[in-house]
Amino acid sequence: MRRIDQRKMAHSYLEGLLVTSGKKSLRRLATAISPDPSAVQSLRQFVSLSPWNFDEVMEELTRWVTGHDPEPIWPIGRAVMPKRGDRSVGVHRYFDPSSGRTLNCQLGLGSFLRVGTTQVPVDWCLHLPMSWTQDSGRRRDARIPDAERYRPMWRHTLRLVDRLSARTGSTSSVTLVDMSDEPDVEHLLSGLAKRHRDFVVAVAPHLPVQPAGETAGGPVTARALAFAQTPETAVVPLDSGRQRVAHLQTTLVHLPRNSQGRSPGPPYRLFTEGGPAHASGRLWLTSLTHHTLSEVCRVAALHAGTTDVIASMERDFGLLDFEGRSFPGWYHHTALVSAAYAYQRLHGRAVEPSREMAERVL
After folding, report:
1. What's the whole-model pTM score?
2. Looking at the DSSP assignment, which residues form a beta bridge with residue 245?
3. Which of 303, 309, 206, 292 is nearest to 248 (CA)?
4. Which residues are registered as beta bridge partners of 2?
5. Which of 45, 53, 167, 188 could staple 154 via S-S, CB 3.0–4.6 A?
6. Does residue 270 register a pLDDT over 50?
7. What gap in Å lies between CA 212 and CA 235, rounded to an integer?
8. CB under 8 Å to 140, separation ≥6 — which residues?
């Protein structure tokens, strides 16, 4: 942040996130760090109205996390943020596959770096439905920048990959994301292939695929082809140092070409664990065809860790608790929550409120 007063307020906001138990409302953050009644207004001004740049802050956070030697895997996860009413920026009706319910919520997509056995958030995108991007009144009230347009989730994912590529300079990291409810997941796979990015992506069961090596016959669904395979076993290493045995159904496939006479694209590995009765039921597609089943299963299993990190950010770091309604405010709060999470996980220090902190917030 460019200004000293912004840096001081950011420090106070972060310490408030780290020391306040329970819901991280602005009032509770202010109460935790200062007895002055004006502290809550100071925090509200800083997070919602102060003109500091989300991208610059997240770029600096990425550099700091990269200094901890992250693994070359980029998990991307989804945060579902329930809201009341229709005023919070981006709020819409969304069917959440994990809960099996339709929610009134904001939808955020975050990218992570994996350091040791933890994952750290380093970037976010807020999904804006067309009901927001095409409504000039809503755009004005929520202070949505002119450059922000509707993007499907697959395009948000590519945007996160591009930004993380630019910030880290990495050309070999593997993108890991669950797009099993994305009807146009082919666009994501095509975009990653064009960027020469390896990936492990959970795909929709109805995704059309072509069995590798077959020259006749039309495409079949990923679900039908995967579940027709003879089960195989793989020993998957766990973060705890232990191992587990996975029972998989897998085969090599091509994605069908749209035009006649074109040669098939590169082969991908399609795999699922445990068949139709397995708890997750995810179908994974990966470009890592020269890796062992154990290796690709280990990468896919990290998705559960991403989900756990987001749940921890929601429960313990205030990801769900932003009460403002503006586009800049959402991004500012999310950046600060990410920084607090990164500090706690990588620095490993508990934070106690201090008199100096109370003075800084005033």
Report:
1. 0.91
2. 235
3. 292
4. none
5. 188
6. yes
7. 25
8. none
